[in-house]
Amino acid sequence: MPRPPVPAARPRRFRPRGIALMEAMIAILLLSIGALGYAALQMKGLSASSSAMWRSKASHLAYEMADRMRANRAGVVAGAYNALGAPETVTDCGAAADCSPVRMAVLDHGQWNASLANELPGGSGVVCRDATPDDGSAEGSACDGGGTMLAVKVFWTERGVTSRLVLAVRP
Predict the structure, then answer these.
(1) Cross-strand bridge partners of residue 155
(2) Cα 158 from Cα 57, distance rounded (Å)
(3) pLDDT per residue as tens digits for the range 66-84
(4) pLDDT band of 52, cuts 50, 70, 90
(5) For the chain, what are the domain ranges?
(6) CA distance 108 to 110
(7) CA atoms within 13 A on the CB side of 34
(8) pLDDT band at residue 7, thresholds of 50, 70 and 90?
(9) Cβ 72 vs Cβ 46: under 8 Å
(10) What is the DSSP string of the chain?
């Protein structure tokens, strides 16, 4: 007797339950958190790089003033660099005319402060005798006139905070 034909298996009906969608949403969430972390790390790196750049410029400018003082040894010995007041514009000496060591110190101080103002945000500086050189701010240099070293103090502002760099120079 012939066998009756076997009915074809009924395909199972697929009921979407949202599992794949949930997995995709969790994967997107984790990738988003990772991307935000990476962006925060990049911002922190840029901030540190910017701070290092300003400190490097301030260091370069402090050494520039120290070099000016080494070039004008007579002005240093005469005390001409010690706590010069507000920067002055000197036109009666420099490359075209001879000038005294004291006037050269005033010229150096004026040119140096102009460089500080141009190259650093809120940049200013002072050269003075100071027994405690690691104090002071842009508003008040806190030079006490004591000590055996000249302090080259550079001040600038970054992100609303005043920063300071001090270089001690033996007269």
Answers:
(1) 124, 164
(2) 13
(3) 998 998 888 888 888 886 7
(4) confident
(5) 51-169
(6) 6
(7) 6
(8) low
(9) no
(10) -PPPPPPPPPPPPP---SHHHHHHHHHHHHHHHHHHHHHHHHHHHHHHHHHHHHHHHHHHHHHHHHHHHHHTHHHHHTTTTTT--S-----SSSSSS---HHHHHHHHHHHHHHHHHHHSTT-EEEEEE-SSTT---SS-----S-SSSEEEEEEEEETTEEEEEEEEE--
Q: Which two tokens stand for residue 80?
A: 């001409």
Q: Could you tell me the two tokens for 101? A: 């060591």
Q: Tokens representing 119?
A: 């190259």
The closest alpha carbon to 153, from 142, 161, 144, belongs to 142
What's the one-letter identity of residue 156?
W
Q: Enumerate the β-bridge partners of residue 150.
A: 129, 169
